[in-house]
Amino acid sequence: MKFLRVDMASGAVKLETPGDDYTLYGGRALIAKILTDEVDPKCDPLGPQNKLVICTGLLAGTNAPTAGRLSVGGKSPLTGTIKEANVGGTAGRMMSRLGIRAIIVENSAPGKSFILKISDGNVQLLPGEQYAGLNNYELVSRLQEAYGAKIGVISIGGTGERGYRNSTVQITNTEGYPSRAAARGGMGAVMGSKGLKAIVLEPGSAAEVAYSDKEKFNNAVKSYVQGIKDHPVSGQALPALGTAVLVNIVNAMGALPTRNFSSGNFAGAEAIGGENMAQILGARGGKAGHICQLGCPIGCSNIYHDENGRYLTSGLEYETIALNGANCGISSLDTIARIDRLCDDFGLDTIETGATIAVCMEAGKIPFGDDKGALALIQEMIDSTALGKVLGQGTAATGKYLGVKRIPTVKGQSIAGYDPRALKGTGVTYATSPMGADHTCGNSILEQNVAPTQKEGQVEISTHLQVGMATFDSLGMCIFSGFCTADPANVGHLLDMVSSRFGGDWDPNKLFSIGINTLAMEKQFNAAAGIGEELNCLPEFMTTEPLPPTGSVFDITVAELNKAIPF
Amino acid sequence: MRIRVKLYATFRLNYKNNYNVEKGLPLALPEGSTIHDVLEMLQIKPEKVSLLRINEISTRDFYTTVTDNDVIDIFPFVGGG
């Protein structure tokens, strides 16, 4: 697997064979390693010194289930921290088939718009002025006209070109729609600052992957896939109802962000839940159990049609529903699906966007529950109105601009779809993750042995989860494929996969040291960037304002929080 | 005694269109019945339940006695996000 280095200033592209010391770095770990080795932590995230790294995980290119995840990283313009945004879709698998582990984009071509086209044995950086200013759906459609329907595309919309700190990098799904988002932390703006509009991946002829023991690998894959299918969440709940299955239970727990994190309970939850969404998908000819990448045994994605049975969006997820639905007081799934479509098209993080709109509602710009007003505010971002430009800088910037006191962010990034007062393990993760508030770094929703509002034990739970998630993000596997590792037999199958791919003796300590080392590198990068443990805290209002209906406050102190991820 | 049971996620799917979202599932039970009896009646194994609420109050005690007009919420394990 090669590294493809692209110098945007000179236009030079170079395929490199990485040194042996890089062999066991993939995905999130590889981003941490490359940034540690090559990027000054104090650099301007949108300047030429920052690098955009797009890479696959350790098990990419194999038939390990869900191993086609893609990591997109760099120094974040939203948080000022190191950032890895993780995404499904087709691009990870296509990069592997082209023999590429990582694309490292260096320097910048300000104001330009290039297309990086990669095919078997051929890499070209092409002028793409004709694509400048296009949003993702039209951009991908034009690229498909030019290069064929089977290409994979990694792209930015107008928001990334304008340097919006809430902008995404979008990835095409199995239908060729740019509906999967490396959403968090403004990686779209980093790509835009380089002058790179899109990466086009042509179908490759499947690069050889070396195995230490291929038969053992295939057997381990078979057993692990069975483990995924036997687990009630990855085998039943997610395929049937998608991640939206969480709406009703998080609401019942009193942790569903509602009206800018002022309640944990939303009267309209049933209308925006996974159960109702399944009815809508069925009635309109949409699809549940949809896969975002080939070979996924879970299929938590969906295809959502509008009232007239026409394609509207794909991959309508819990977080999008929580933040743009309950948190904005909006109880129409059709409105939320339209918001999701606009966000994918323009290239906006749906979590950050929902939190930003709710802050506008709190400020009185529009009332809570105003569907049309919410859609209009998103349109302002793409129309670059004065207010739209502020909204594009994220929830914290918007809250400050509008004089809102209750701003739900950590290290400048908005909190996701679980109020940390009623799900404290996830709260520890929000506060201490090197990424800023990010549920995917360690969500305690499945934890059964410790009550979610209880203070004790949450630091340990979060630490355990953060190591696990960082490990899966480095293997390049979807974190949903990891639920089954609660059963030690499946950890054994996972170890067999890694050892038969790379050789050597592997035990759980060695496997999870991947996550530990990654977290350690990330923390070090942040400290050198000037973002230390003193910023490991939740917004103050969450520590003082009881959350209805549980009446819980976040009472884990900063000193206690800083015992999390002690690496 | 009559109670109503609200089912979620995969538990609800078993009832297809015979489930009323507003009202839930009406059940008639003998006096003194427990949550465990309710689960048995619905053929739900206790180990498959992740969250259980009686009139919106969480409980983990499957031997709590139910009373007339109670509303019971039953959730399987779910995850994602």
Side by side, the strands of the main sheet of chain A go 2-1-6-3-4-5
Radius of gyration of chain B, whole Å: 12 Å
Please report the total strand number of chain B as a whole number. 5
Can you tell me the CATH class of chain B?
Answer: Alpha Beta
CATH architecture of chain B: Roll
Count up the domains of chain B: 1
- Regarding quaternary structure, what we see is heterodimer
Describe this structure in words.
With 567 residues, chain A is α+β, with helices and mostly antiparallel strands. Chain A is 40% helix and 14% strand. Chain A has 3 domains: 2-201, Aldehyde Ferredoxin Oxidoreductase,  A, domain 1; 242-416, Aldehyde Ferredoxin Oxidoreductase Protein, subunit A, domain 2; 420-486 and 505-567, Orthogonal Bundle (Aldehyde Ferredoxin Oxidoreductase Protein, subunit A, domain 3), CATH 1.10.599.10. In chain A, strands 2-1-6-3-4-5 form a 6-stranded mixed beta sheet, sandwiched between helices. In chain A, a hairpin with a 2-residue loop joins strand 16 and strand 17. Chain B is built from 2 helices and 5 strands, in the order βαβαβββ. Chain B has one domain: Beta-grasp domain (Ubiquitin-like (UB roll)), CATH 3.10.20.30. The model of chain B has no long low-confidence stretch (mean pLDDT 94). By secondary structure, chain B is of the alpha+beta class. Chains A and B meet through helix 7, helix 8 and helix 10 of A and helix 1, strand 3 and strand 5 of B.
